[in-house]
Amino acid sequence: MTHMRLRHLLAIAWLAAATVSCGDAARSSQAPVFLTVTKLEGRRGAPTPGEFGNPLVSDVVTNVTSDPCSTARPCPTVFSDLGQAEFEVALKDIGNTVVATQPTSNNAVTIRRFRVTYRRADGRGTPGVDVPYPWDGALTLTVPGGGKATAGFELVRLVSKYESPLVQLKDNGSVITAIAEVTFYGEDRVGNDVSATGSIQIDFGNFGDFR
Fold first, then answer.
1. What H or E segment, with its residue span, contains residue 155?
2. pLDDT tens digits for 102-157?
3. pTM value?
4. Structure confidence by residue, pLDDT tens digits, 18-41
């Protein structure tokens, strides 16, 4: 009797778990496509910004020496840093070895906004104390179904370098190594929500000026 009751309880538990799993899968699988961030890079904001790459060396203040400034009388200037992301849209149902599923115009994904959050490499992550505050930005980009697209965006906003903890780096000589996670949000042509996240390492500090 005890054995039968145990089997009955296990069957109920399995059914409940299966129901939850199916529900989660249904909620997370409304869109018939995957949006993927295939590459995420950064470029320091300055008069001579250089190439996009990872990690990003983010200078919290730059001494501008071009007119009306000079080498003798440089102008301390703050620049935001830029990001560049490459996206790919792929079908969840790829068909089979005989007949491959082909994307249509309905599978195109339009990205409309993004959110940047930071955490330190040493595990600390209190916004405004250990890392910059998280923030949201706008971006409009359509990635074709089965295709790729690239977009630029602001990765480290200007105001972050005037706030703690970055503003203190201008004078104390310290370096903060952080990981920025950028989540992009959009929808396909029929209104299904789609999102994807990419990560990039950022080293914040007053590094002097690149020549």
1. strand 148-156
2. 777 889 999 999 999 999 978 888 999 999 999 999 999 999 999 999 999 999 99
3. 0.80
4. 433 333 333 344 788 899 999 999
Tell the burial category of 170 from Cβ atoms under 10 Å away from its Cβ (0-12, 13-18, 19+). middle
Sheet holding 33-43, edge to edge: 33-43, 81-91, 148-156
- CA 97, distance to chain mean position in Å, is 34
b/e burial code for range 135-151 (CB count within 10 A of at least 16 → b) = beeebebbbebbeebeb
3-state SS, residue 204: strand
- The token duo for 38 is 């295939």
Closest by alpha carbon to 169, among 202, 136, 139, 122?
202
Please give the Cα distance from 101 to 116 (Å, whole number). 34
Residue type, 126: T
As a whole number of Å, the CA-based R_g of the chain is: 24
Judge contact between 104 and 33, C-beta under 8 A: no
In sequence order, what E strands does 33-98 have?
33-43, 56-59, 62-64, 75-77, 81-91
Closest CA to 62 of 163, 201, 161: 161
* CA atoms of 99 and 93, how far apart (whole Å): 11
Local structure of residue 161 (DSSP, 8 states)? G
